[in-house]
Design goal:
Layout lengths: L2 E3 L2 H32 L1 H11 L13 H6 L6 H21 L4 E6 L2 E9 L2 E5 L8 H14 L3 E5 L5 H10 L3 E3 L3 H10 L9 E3 L4 H10 L4 E2 L7 E5 L5 H12 L6 E6 L2 H17 L4 H8 L2 E4 L3 H11 L3 E4 L3 H5 L7 E4 L5 H6 L25 E9 L1 H18 L2 H8 L3
Parallel strand pairs: 1-11, 4-5, 4-7, 5-6, 7-8, 9-10, 9-12, 10-11, 12-13
Antiparallel strand pairs: 2-3, 3-14
Length: 416
């Protein structure tokens, strides 16, 4: 990783590079989404053969129930224990996140209440490049089940035994071998083979993220959760720990963005050495590319300048290994924040109970990560008695007249 001085010009380059990547992905995803919407299964099959598996057929798109049930016997007991722990923690967090029903009388005779209704059907997108991101199925399906979602469909380009074992553990019966922008389009619009869902969840590469945004006019999506981003912000700390967290996120993809932001030139050099040493010890992988292409060590003039950069970048993951309480007060935008030297980022990716489906590409300036609340609809119910009506009628008519909506006024006046 290079050590670079954090300047306004460099920040502009970092942010603009992310935007340019999004533009290219939008064009490619738009072609795929439009084709699947127009030609259905034929386009879904053609793009899957071209981009993922040339042996794909429509009759082997869905994993048979017998294979899902048998998967638990093909994975280790240690893995199943990890699944149970992660699911338990996710369930506990989801129960806290769910909105609660309530009722209030805003004035005599006028009662407003909130009822919670789960989304009827969802699609869970599970990334599957070199390996299926098994944990994503837990991160999306467990809060969905806690919310009461009736139908959960999982799609993954390369589902492995571990993914199928998780599906069996969760009681999921619909798992399809399809991925990419074509899977998003199929879930959003429906094809003969893939049913349409009401909302799509899960992270993906930049093409998947672009596809989700393209279909969002007709099918709800959770949030733009694209290529991984991580920032570690510290003036002091354990260089080995810091480097390890940077590399953990950098290994996701060539365009994974990992940055260490510091005011200490000495710590910057230590972290750079640690990154090189740890890369040499790890098997060759994506981190070798992304640390050079998409990552850097940024040397800020002051802690305030460093925090301002973090807030403008709005990273998916942020670690504050030291001075956490003081620094936390200065952070306004991040998908999730890890506090202290022992808060290894992979713990959040897998087992803490906090979702790893997080906003990327600056969306953390607008919203947080995935929550169980994203799987329900909050429906208001308005109960108005005659006395309540009389207490509101004059004001309602005044508003209607100010807007020139006389039928609105009439709907009130005829009840007097």
């Amino acid at each position: 990783m290079r050590i670079l001085k954090l300047t306004p010009r460099l920040e502009k380059q970092i942010l603009s590079r992310r935007a340019q990547s999004d533009d290219e992905a939008q064009r490619t995803a738009a072609e795929i989404v439009s084709d699947v919407r127009r030609r259905g299964d034929a386009a879904l099959l053609a793009w899957t053969k071209k981009l993922d598996d040339p042996e794909t057929r429509l009759d082997n798109l869905w994993i048979p129930q017998t294979e899902i049930r048998a998967a638990e016997r093909r994975v280790s007991s240690e893995f199943l224990r990890a699944v149970r722990q992660a699911a338990r923690n996710l369930q506990r967090v989801a129960e806290q996140q769910l909105p609660k029903p309530w009722s209030i009388e805003v004035q005599p005779g006028v009662a407003i209440s909130q009822r919670i209704s789960p989304i009827e059907s969802i699609g869970c997108y599970i990334p599957g490049g070199n390996a299926s991101l098994v944990s994503t199925l837990l991160m999306t399906a467990v809060p969905a089940q806690a919310a009461g979602v009736g139908r959960i469909i999982a799609v993954c380009p390369k589902p492995n035994n571990e993914l199928l074992a998780v599906a069996q553990f969760l009681g999921l019966s619909e798992v399809a071998c399809v991925g990419g922008a074509q899977a998003i389009a199929a879930l959003a619009y429906g094809t003969k083979s893939v049913p349409r869902v009401e909302k799509i969840f899960g992270p993906g590469n930049k093409y998947v993220t672009a596809a989700k945004q393209l279909v969002s006019a007709e099918c709800a999506i959770d949030l733009p959760a694209g290529p991984t981003e991580a920032i570690v912000l510290a003036e002091r700390g354990n260089a080995r720990f810091i480097a390890a967290d940077l590399l953990a996120q950098a290994e996701h993809a060539k365009d994974a963005a990992s940055f260490f932001v510091t005011t200490s030139a000495a710590l910057a050099r230590e972290v750079k050495r640690e990154v090189q040493w740890q890369l040499a010890e790890l098997p060759a992988g994506m981190a070798n590319f992304s640390t050079v292409r998409s990552g850097a060590i940024l040397l800020a003039k002051s802690l305030r300048e460093a925090c301002d950069f973090v807030n403008r970048f709005a990273p998916e993951h942020l670690s504050l290994p030291s001075d956490s309480a003081a620094l936390l007060q200065q952070i306004r935008s991040s998908g999730t924040i890890f506090i202290g030297p022992w808060a290894a980022q992979p713990l959040g990716d897998y087992v803490t109970g906090s979702s790893h489906v997080l906003p990327t590409a600056g969306w953390a300036r607008r919203r947080g990560g995935l929550s169980a609340a994203d799987f329900v609809k909050c429906i208001t119910v308005q109960t108005i008695s005659r006395n309540g009506f009389l207490g509101l009628a004059n004001s309602a008519e005044a508003f209607a007249e100010s807007e020139g909506l006389l039928a609105h006024r009439n709907a009130v006046r005829v009840r007097r």
